[in-house]
Structures are given as C-alpha cells and as structure tokens.
Amino acid sequence: MQAYPESVPLPSSDKRWKLVEATIRRHGHKASSLIEVLHTVQESFGYLDCVSLRFVASSLRLPLSEVYGVATYYHYFSLKPPGQHTCVVCMGTGCYVKGSGNLMKAIEEVAHVTAGETTPDGKVSVVAARCIGSCSLSPAAVFDGEVMPKAQPEAVKDQIRRWLDHDAR
Amino acid sequence: MTLDELQEIAEKEREEQKKYTHRVNVSVAAGCLSLHSDQVLKILETEVQKRGMENTCKVKGVGCMGLCAAGPLVRCEPQHTYYRGLPPNQEILSAVVDNLDGAPLPEFALSPDVPFFAEQQKIVLENCGVIDPERIEDAIAVGAYEPLLDCISNRTKDEVVQEIIKSGLRGRGGGGYPTGLKWSMVAKAPGEQKYVICNADEGDPGAFMDRSVLESDPHRVLEGMAIAAYAVGASKGYIYCRAEYPLAVKRLKIAIKQAERLGLLGKRIGDSDFEFEVEVRLGAGAFVCGEETALIASVEGKRGVPRPRPPFPAYSGLNHCPTLLNNVETFANIAPILRKGGDWFASIGTEKSKGTKVFALVGDINNTGLIEVPMGITLRDLVFKLGGGIPEGRKFKAVQTGGPSGGCIPEQFLDMSVDYASLASVGSIMGSGGMIVMDETACMVDVAKFFMDFTRDESCGKCIPCRVGTTQLHGLLERISAGEGKMEDLDTLERLGAMVQKTALCGLGQTAPNPVSSTLRYFREEYVQHITEKTCAQGKCACSNTPAATAGE
C-alpha cells in the first residue's frame, strides 16, 4: 500500500487555496508536480509569496529551499505582486529588429520604471518578454493580455499615461 | 475504436460537410486573433444567419493560414479566394457574404496564386487553416488517426520504425538528429516503463512554427506521439509546452479530451492492448529547457538544468526510464509518412535533408508569416519570392537562422540551398526554423550583442564556460558598441568564442558564440568601424550618441 501524505491545512480561508489544493490532489501530492502547482498559485494569486511557497513545500513534502530554487529559476514565476495593469513588451528577435528597444525606452520615459518593475503607486508593471510568438506583428506589446500589433512608441506611451492618470482602462 | 469505426466517423462528417455549398474559413490562430478575427467570425456568422443561409454556407474558425502580414485572413470555398486584412466591420463583412458567388471585393482580395501560397509544399501544415482545431471530427474527416489505427492493427512496431528510418526524417527542433535512429534506440532500450515527450518549448525568439501547428492542428501532433509510443513501446507521454502559449495549451487540452473520449488515446486504443496517455506540462520560461536533459528535469518538476550525456535519454531519461523526445514539427511529420510511405517522403528535398521545413519569416520582410517549403530551396527564393522582398525598397543585409544558436548569413550566400549541411557550412544552423531578415539599417554588432545578452541571461549557470564565457563575450560587445573597444578585443572575442564552443556542457553554451563568430566573419568591417571611428553607421549603438563620436575624437 502506498502511503499518501496527509493534507496540510490551508494557510487561510481564502477560496483560492482550494484551487491550489485541487491541483496538488490531482497530481497525487507528487514532487514532480511542483511546477504545475506553482503555476496554479501564480494564476490564482498573481505571484508567489512566502506563505504559498511554504504551503506548497509542505504539501509536496519538498524542502523549502528546493521550492524556492525552482520558483526563482524560471522567468515566468514572479515573487513580487503585479501592478494593477501589466504591459509586456516583446523583446524577441523579430520585435527587436523592428524597434522594440524604442518601445521599451518610451515606456520607461513615462512610467519611470525599468523592465521587471512596478510603478510605486502599484498601477503599472512593465515586463520584457523573451518572445510571445507574435513575430509577424512585430513590434508587439501586450496590455493586460491584449496584443497591440505593430506598436508605435506614441501609442504605447498614451496607453501607459491613461493607466497612470486614472483608474479607467 | 477500430479502423472501420473511425472511417465511419470520417465518412459521416464528410457527408455532413457536403451539404454546404459555400465555406467561409476564418483564421482564429493567435496572430489573426490579436487583429480581432474572432469578431470577424461572429459578424460573418450573423450575416449568414440573417440571410437564412446557415444550411448552405458554413462559417468556421480555422487555424493559421500562414500569411500573418495580411491578417485577419479569410478563405472562401469553393472559389479558393482569400481575403486579407478584413476588419470586424459589419458593412464590409456583409458585402463579403453577398459576394460569395461573385468576384471577391477587390480592396481585400488576395489571389491564391501569389508566390507566397503557390510556391509552398505543405505536409506539416496541410490541415492548418483548413480544419477547426477544436473539433476532432473535422480532423478525422481529413484522415487524422487513420495511420495510427492502421499501424496498431496492421504493422509491427519494427515495421513502423523502419518506415521512419526509410523516410530520412531528421529532428526539426534544431539538432537534426535522424528521427528513425532515435526511435530504434528507444525501442531497443531495456525497460518496462518508457516515455514519449514532445518538445513544445519553442524558445527561439523569432520563431512560432510549433505554436501555429499546436493551435491549428493539435491532433496531428498527438497522433504522431501515439504512433511513436506504439513503435517504441511507451505508455505515457508528455507535451512540454511554453506557458507563454495559452491558446496552444487550451487547444491541446481540448484535443486530448476529445481523443480520449473516442478511444484514440488512453487505454485499449484501436481495441488492442496498446495504451497511451498524454498530459500537458507547462514550461515556465527557461530557454535552456529546449535542451533535452534540461527539459526532462523540468518535466520532473525540478530546475531545468542540463546534465552530461551519456547516458542519453533514449536509455535513461524521465524518471531514469528510456525516453523518446522529439519536437512538435517532427511529430507532425509522422502521420503523413505512414500514410504515404517513407519512400514518398524521401523523394522530397535534398539527398541528405529530406522532406519539407516550416519557416517563420520575420523582421524586415514584406510577407511576414509561416511557410512550408521543400528542403533545398534557395535563400533568395525564400526571401524574395515567397517573402516578397524587403519593405520600402531597402537593401537586404543578412538573414539570421537558428535563433540564438545560429548565425547571420550575408548576401553572397543568398543562392545557397537551405538544408542542414549548407547552413552549417556558413556558420549557422537550420535550427527550429526562425528566419529573421535584416535590411541595411541593421547594425551587426548590435545584433550580436542582442543575442549574447539573451544567452547570457538564459545560461543556467551550471557550467563555467557558458556562465562566465557568455558574460565576458557580452561585456566585450558592450564595450565595442559603446565606442570603447580595442582592436585586440576582436581576437579575444574569437578565442573566447571558440573556447566556449568547445567546452560548454550543453547545446546552449556550445552554440552561444555563433551569432558573434558569424558576424565577425562576414561583417568584420562593422566591428572595426565601431572601434576605430567610435561610431555606429546605423545609429543603433550607444557610441553614436557619445560626445566622442560627435566630436570625431
């Protein structure tokens, strides 16, 4: 008989933990599901914090160091909370050749933060992506999940300004 | 499900489709979707309903048609007309529906006879842009899963492997290892449990072939994996897909469920003892996970760090079991090879590079998009005939193939044949199929620096040549681009590059210096100009803004 680890109590009554627990159960608490579970945490909470890493570590019976190691190794995982809005600039080769460097500069000018940072008021996160696969529409920027094909610095600046000025979309 | 039952479904679906006299296919792959093709689809559907034509005209969301530059794309049958750049505008789309029998609207019409479409030969992409990727019946109607069930009931495992060997298919992910040989290694490897893994971690920036296949024809990939599993004796499979491709992941998951429901995946496939289960595993944004041992570590839930080979994954891979690992495009070639035979496949392409290859044309080129052409086509045909040349009448400078592991190929090699050996002979690689075209405004020092920045950042840090070497190479390039380089830096770049190439642990490090060495080889004068004149003729590098450059110091 295979012994299943006992369930670890959820960190709080927040319903999102149920989603995380469901993923852990679906994979039978196996250590090999670590990345899948971290994906669920990030999808549910927006980022990975200390509480969630500890919870995942004890649920999968993994050392916290290993969980932290995986969480920090992969670019996709973030240990900082995202801003209200996220702007992703694709820095893949296709977009780079078409001037995505200028897009990034334009964004940094208005948002006053560099790629990987969030504005101090928590409104806008700026992210540089490796390649979002929209190479044929380069340079591409993604605003809250919506791709802006053939983005121009002025249009990008306008959108960022709108986000910064009001809470309106 | 038996072969007869499958054919019955196919026949029924084909009958069902025959009742439509007109078909309007709207591309709902990621490229066109970001241009709101989903709204185009909806409006077209409403317009058809308004006219009470829903029983004679089928409006359908399909996968990628290739010419992304002209999205959103729509294809009308039986006239074979394409529409390009259709906006989600009711008036225009209403006119499209009204003109189904007449001549297409001239301002949006796109002839299927343009070289971009006419010069292609589609094997991998044959169903992309034709079938609805979210309906298995649509795939079955064009022959999906027939080769799989045929293999299970009529061919031995060894016969399947032999057919793949005969085809001469080589891995399409970058390395170009003979696929049949890999299969036979795994088939012969001792072990109860074996795995099949599909590498869908398309990490090369500037490449989206695999994404398009997964979004447009996921069943093709699943079938290829299932045939491989049958041939090598595996019962469990994983598709390791980038988390950055949510639409591909969604469609894959739908496809897996549909195939399981029909008994084409799971237990007792084709009413035999053969079983094969597939799960999707999400990547998490690590380029090195395209390397097979790193990918396997990532599927195991660990940090994706490569390990020395041997043992090769064919003997000891996932969970230390024999594991077959192929790329998406490789698996997508399997079903056609078994349907039409290895000899047929081997008759396409060149002597050493068989079949077709899918390329992503991006950068400074008019017809950006995806194409599939026989191996051996010339670069000139790719760029100027299918690609439609360089925009705004500018001059061609170089084409970069193979992603961060490849090189920049200058104009003098434009008439070279595109195959594994020729590309290697000029210091590049076939790679996964990204072709980034650069015009005269590109600065090659800047391009080399871009790639070194990429590999430096993506180096996993396990081996010193890669971890330190890429950082040093990048530092040297940074210095040169800032106008502070010395002539001896060029020798250091070459020496250090050769050292990293020879001593790094995995493919990432071994190929990382390629963009530098190839640009040094063909565009040395640009490096020299940055060093001696402290200026960047294209104005891309930092040195063109420094006071030193403007003062002409």
Spatial strand arrangement across the major sheet of chain A:
2-1-3-4
SS strand fraction of chain A = 5-15%
The number of distinct helices of chain A, counting runs of at least 4 residues, comes to 7
Question: Termini separation of chain B (Å)?
Answer: 78 Å
Rg calculated over all Cα atoms of chain A: 19 Å
Q: Which structural class matches the secondary elements of chain A? A: alpha+beta
**Per the principal axes of the C-alpha atoms, what is the gross shape of chain B?**
globular
Round the mean pLDDT of chain B to the nearest integer and report it. 94
Question: In percent terms, what proportion of residues of chain B is strand?
Answer: 5-15%
Question: Which parts of chain A are unreliable, with pLDDT below 50 for 5 consecutive residues or more?
Answer: none
Derived structural class of chain B: alpha/beta
Mean pLDDT of chain A: 91
Summarize the largest interface: chains and residue counts: A-B, 38 and 51 residues
Q: Whole-number radius of gyration of chain B? A: 25 Å
Helicity of chain A, in percent?
40-55%
Order of helices and strands of chain A: HHHHEHHEEEH
Low-confidence stretches of chain B: 547-553
Strand order of the largest sheet of chain B: 2-1-3-4-5
